[in-house]
Design brief:
binds 5-O-phosphono-beta-D-ribofuranosylamine; single chain; alpha/beta; 7 strands
């Protein structure tokens, strides 16, 4: 991906469903001078998502869409994205599966963070499964989103050691800390920075 020019940052939307700790780290990153992106829109399917509070705190536009009818929700999101001239979408703990059509429209422009070393442990309950299988390592992945779940091109990965004493919760916490560092790094990478 190339930067349009040296001064304007790439307008970015972050999609969240829950705590939004990755959103917070992305907002902080976006405000650094070296960051190629600005965060201009936060989308959530969940009106109670805690992460929405970060949007409020940092005065970023927030929009909530009910995914009961995904088609309608996505149509509204596309309008919002166009209106705000969004050029990059970062999924960050967004728990809805987006349609093939939507992905096609923004081909190569949607990133996701997944809490495992893909292609291992796609889908949910990643930490539980990694521990159960006695894996020595797990980690996190930033990848491009394609219509196949958790299968797009891998941008960056970070390995995290699983200790014998790690519970699902402990491991999730350790990996989350790495996610916060990896997402900004991956964004720098896609812009060749
Ligand atoms: C992260 O572990 C992410 O990898 C997964 O959901 C979690 C979201 O955490 N997809 P948060 O909402 O960013 O705190």
């Amino acid at each position: 991906m190339a930067l349009s020019n040296g001064t304007n940052k790439i307008k970015t939307a972050v999609f969240i469903s829950g705590n939004g700790s990755n959103l917070k780290s992305l907002i902080k990153f976006s405000r650094l001078k070296k960051s190629p992106i600005s965060i201009d829109l936060i989308i959530s399917n969940n009106p109670r998502a805690k992460g929405l509070n970060y949007g409020k705190f940092y005065k970023i536009k927030r929009k909530i869409f009910n995914f009961k009818d995904r088609n309608i929700a996505e149509k509204k999101i596309i309008l919002e994205i166009k209106k705000n001239k969004i050029k990059l979408i970062c999924l960050a703990g967004f728990m809805k599966i987006i349609s093939k059509n939507f992905i096609k429209k923004f081909k190569g422009k949607i990133l996701n963070v997944h809490p495992s070393l893909l292609p291992k442990y796609k889908g949910i309950n990643t930490h539980e499964r990694a521990i159960k299988n006695n894996e020595k390592y797990s980690g996190c992945t930033i990848h491009l989103v394609t219509s196949k779940l958790d299968s797009g091109k891998i941008i960056l990965q970070k390995k995290v050691k699983i200790n014998k004493s790690d519970t699902t919760k402990k491991l999730a916490k350790k990996i989350l800390i790495q996610e916060h560092k990896l997402y900004p790094k991956a964004i720098m990478k896609i812009f060749n920075l």
